[in-house]
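Appendix B, Record 12. Input sequence as logged:
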Amino acid sequence: MPTYLYRMILFAMLLVAIPVTTIGMISYHISSQDIEKKVKESNSQILLQNQMRIEQVLKNVEMGAVQYLNSPLVTDNLYNALTQDDFQTITSLAKGLYNLHSLSGVADTHLINLEKDWMISNLGFTRTADYSDKNRLQDYAKNPKNLFWLADEYGIRMIVKLPMIAPSAAPKALLIIEMSKTELEKGLAQTKQLGDIYVLNREHIPFLSNAGADYISDSILEPLKKVTDANGYYEGKNTAVNYRVSSNSWIYASVVSIDQVTMESKKIALVTINVCLIVFLVIASAAFYVSRRMYSPIRRLFQTMEQFGGETTESRRKDEFAYIEDRFNALFRTRKQFQQQLQGQTGQMKEFFLLKLFMGQVTESEFAFKCETYGFAEKGKPMGVIALQIDSLQDTRYMESDKELLLFAIHNIVSELLPANRLLGSLLLDQSQVSLLTGDVEDLQELQLSFHQAAEEIKSKVHELLQLKVSIGISRVFSRYTDAMNAHAEALEALKRRIRLGSDIIIHYDDIETVHENSKHLAASLNYLEDYFVNALKTGDSTSTFEHFDKYVALIMEREIRFNDFQFVMIELITEIHGLVQQQGGKLEGLIDTKSVLHSFMKLNTVQDITSWFKTDLLPPALAFFKGRADSQYINLAHQMLTMIHEGFEQDISLESCAAQLKYHPVYVSRVFKKEIGVTFIDYLTNYRVNMAKKWLKETDMKISEVAERLNYANSTGFIRTFRKLTGMTPGQYRDT
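Logged structural output:
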């Protein structure tokens, strides 16, 4: 190396580096202190603003809850023993609860009468036992305060014990307002440059933070547990913390990284570094220019030596002349090493060349140029391709993740089992082990027999060593190397016939029977079974889903189809399931925890693998997804139908018209209504109309014919018959009682 030249350049750089670096460090220290002080003041103000914003939201909720509880409707009916027949009262109480949802941050509300055992919530009018956790209700009742806030692992909620006038350990009723954590966190306005904001409950557990906030460490939490002042500031390891304690003992903390605080001062350091680099470059250029004029003869010889390779660590310690001497010696020593490395790369290059041959990317002229280099047989010699695939890993000690390792082991077995004069080359290609074979015989039948014997040896050895069942496809005999691509395709096509012939077999392409293309007719005949399968899947019925899937596969297997056609039909079924999941707002890849469903499907090589994959990996999570969606839709659907009856009982309303308006099948909505309400749609509609008729007969002077016409009966006779059947008397008799 140019030792003297580099020493001169290095000395000049050190003269400049020391003073510039010192000035930069002093500037960086002063600026970081000033910026840290300003950020501390800014964080204190922002923390106060966020505290006031959150507490204002909570105050609004408290005021709204108190106004609702003091309303005449609540005070008159809260302590009554309400039943489902008190529909108007329940609706009015629920409407008031729903109005509380308009307040910022409110997510859910529960009005619970502990004494009369009823509850009004988003689920409608239910019993207190339907509350998610009755033990928590007892804890709320024991709290000494009549109005208090809780923030824990169950969420953020306000509890009001009723009556509010006198504190009691056994309240008659409770109002529980659940707050939306997401809405409250939107109020925590903070920029990443000024750190993250956290809100801690009385147990010093953080339950709110701004969007994108990092995990708060124990080193930050421990000092916060010991604070006694209403507000303050302290510094931890690489962090600065501002805190404020609210009246309800919640702690608002702003945590900022000291590195972020001093980010602006780092710009000064960057400018200093750039200036140093410019000075370094200028001085180095000047020193290099002067020195190279004197150094040019040695440099030319030195550059000539560099063209032959790099230097060793020992040579760097020597001067230029010693280096040149070492390079001459090294050139002779490394010559033999280069030759050995070249021989070691020959095998990998041969596999790459064979891959290009199977992919059809090698021309006759290119092959003629390289065939001797890689040791291929002379032109015109008969050859064949065998392709090996693992049938299935079921009922074995291996997992799917072991498949590539198993193929590599099989590849080594083939390489060691077949003699070099018969095995021209082998490689792993797309879940298959592919080998190019040749033979010394000229007769094609004898050559095919030798290929079959080789396949038998391979299959037997794999089963002996790995306890695996494999199938092998054998192509037709060919003589031109450029036909290897077609032979590879023939071997794979032979393997696809396992759909009819079974697994653990050896198949010759010449023995494949021509199969009539009937995939279009097959798809048409499967439509009715697919509809049953899809309907069962959408309702989450696992028994019916698996039953129709088995029938679906059995019907496919009754037809003489190729494996490609079977794959096509099953891909269409996957597409149908994917569309159903998307319609319900889900994602199929997320359900089965994979990046690509089709990519996982295309790795399957047999009908048994495909059927097992559907039953174990695809259908169970899809069924769980649809069942969850169906359960949550039942309640809303039934309440929507009740609203239609209450608002349209005077019109020509029917189950079919409600189903059309809700965009569901009539059979489906009928089943949902009966399950949720307990009676059929027509029985509920008839009873509701008769109850309205009772009210009009008692409170108005309408004629019986007018009542029948208003209730949409075709004539008075039908109305009177229905009224008598349900009440045991005629409308006239009922009016006179």
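Confidence is low (pLDDT under 50) at residues 514-524.
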